[in-house]
Amino acid sequence: xxxxxxxxxxxxxxxxxxxxxxxxxxxxxxxxxxxxxxxxxxxxxxxxxxxxxxxxxxxxxxxxxxxxxxxxxxxxxxxxxxxxxxxxxxxxxxxxxxxxxxxxxxxxxxxxxxxxxxxxxxxxxxxxxxxxxxxxxxxxxxxxxxxxxxxxxxxxxxxxxxxxxxxxxxxxxxxxxxxxxxxxxxxxxxxxxxxxxxxxxxxxxxxxxxxxxxxxxxxxxxxxxxxxxxxxxxxxxxxxxxxxxxxxxxxxxxxxxxxxxxxxxxxxxxxxxxxxxxxxxxxxxxxxxxxxxxxxxxxxxxxxxxxxxxxxxxxxxxxxxxxxxxxxxxxxxxxxxxxxxxxxxxxxxxxxxxxxxxxxxxxxxxxxxxxxxxxxxxxxxxxxxxxxxxxxxxxxxxxxxxxxxxxxxxxxxxx
Length: 415
Known about the structure:
The structure is a single chain. This protein is mainly alpha-helical. Among the domains are: 235-310, Alpha Horseshoe (Serine Threonine Protein Phosphatase 5, Tetratricopeptide repeat), CATH 1.25.40; 325-411, no CATH class. Helices cover 73% and strands 5% of the residues. It has a two-stranded antiparallel sheet. A hairpin with a 3-residue loop joins strand 1 and strand 2 (17-25). Mean pLDDT is 86; it is low at 1-26.
């Protein structure tokens, strides 16, 4: 037996008396059997605790793998439905695309690319209000997204909101793009050009096309596509320059040759037009075009030839040039005589008729002797064809040919 003082308490009684008390504890040693039982209890508790930890860890690992498997399965399903929606949209079935993409979002809620696809499908289904609301919501979190601005531009254009459409097209050009942003911006710019052409805003379309042409790669397909848009934007001169550069290459394409012919004819470069149109008709791919395309090119070539037949070429002999001028004067004079007989036409053409009457009697000899008379008569021919066209409508035959010549007589032999 052992005695241990646990604590000592001092009590003051009066000023000089102290009572000290001792607390004794009696401790009896454990027997060998008790110590063995205690060790067993500790061991059993340790094993139980370890087992609990092991089971918890196993459950955690199992839960992780089950959740990962479930997440992967959801992701697979989301991608599968998204692919189905994109295929349906590409095939022109927006209703099925909307259904598939909504299913994809159920498996992957909040995934941006699926939301954009769904909004695109809604737009394709002409559900413009829903699509616009969807895209505007997406734009709040990605205000610089080029694709979203492009889709909003298309929706605004479809709804006739011209100013808003142009604003979104411009922001799409300035926005961010995934992948090849350089190519995507060029495509957006050309789409903007087509929209401006549809709105007959040709000056702005021409400006955008010049920017596109300056930044575009030099491959023929891209350059010829830009030249074609320039034609539609009534910029025949710039289109002619692009077409001409490609027509001069070895193995020039039919598109380049026909483009040179069309734009040269529009500008009045008739000699260049005829040369290009002859090459186009003789091109191996010409017969593969539609009959209407072939007829259009052949008619333009015939007109070019006729213009050059009537044109008083300075390189001709004096007599040959005088003969052409005399013939042109007769054609224009007959046109004036016929036009004056129409109702209300005579007062409008009285001044022009007086100018003709003031001219001396035309003969080849008089024209050969007086170069100034040649120029005076041809100016009267051109004025006659222009004014009669305004008063009596578009001419036909040689009058139409002379009217075309009158638009740019000095450009005929330009290239």
